[in-house]
Amino acid sequence: MTQVNADDQLLAQYCELKLTGITTPFDSVSGLAVNIPLVSEIVKAASGPPIYKFRSTVPAYGDLTCMAGLSKTDKSLFTWWDEIAQGKREPKDGTLSVLDTTKAPKATWSITGALLTRLDISPMDMGEPKLATVTATFNCVSYKRMK
């Protein structure tokens, strides 16, 4: 059994998603996942049991879902959404970083080909510190851990 080193665990306080032209600071990010399906092939042996061979297929990357408070001034997500609604589907590249309490990056992924596929605004509650939460979902071509 492998011993877990507590000092090696990533402890983060903030996340930061930076995409070309998008300036919205996100509070949380989920969906960082990759699935590489294996295709099995049965090779019939002349004698004995069949032999199974596995080969990898194209990786499928999970959709990133990000949440942020509704900004008073930043409209970059909504501008991008309007462009997409008008038929301009221009994917964006960028980075996703998890930051410590001093906002220094502790882990960073490069993101390729992110396309905004969903934009939701939670019900507006005048009694809450954040009037509303914006949830944005991005379909990504790929991402790779850099740090």
Give a topology summary.
Layout: E1 14-19, E2 28-30, E3 34-35, E4 38-43, E5 51-56, E6 60-61, E7 64-69, H1 76-85, E8 92-99, E9 105-121, E10 133-139, E11 142-145
Antiparallel strand pairs: 1-8, 2-7, 3-6, 4-5, 7-10, 8-9, 9-10, 9-11
Description:
With 147 residues, the protein is mostly beta strands. It has one domain (6-145): Pnp Oxidase, Chain A (Roll). The protein is built from one helix and eleven strands; from the N terminus they run βββββββαββββ. It has one helix at residues 76-85; strands at 14-19, 28-30, 34-35, 38-43, 51-56, 60-61, 64-69, 92-99, 105-121, 133-139, 142-145. The two termini are 27 Å apart. The model has no long low-confidence stretch (mean pLDDT 81).
Overall, the morphology is elongated
In CATH, the architecture is: Roll
Uncertain segments: none
Mean pLDDT: 81
- Helical segment tally? 1
Radius of gyration: 21 Å
What is the count of β-strands?
Answer: 11
How much of the polypeptide forms β-strand, as a percent range? Answer: over 45%
Question: How many domains comprise the coordinates?
Answer: 1
CATH uppermost class: Mainly Beta
**Share in helix:** under 10%
**Distance between the terminal alpha carbons, to the nearest Å?**
27 Å
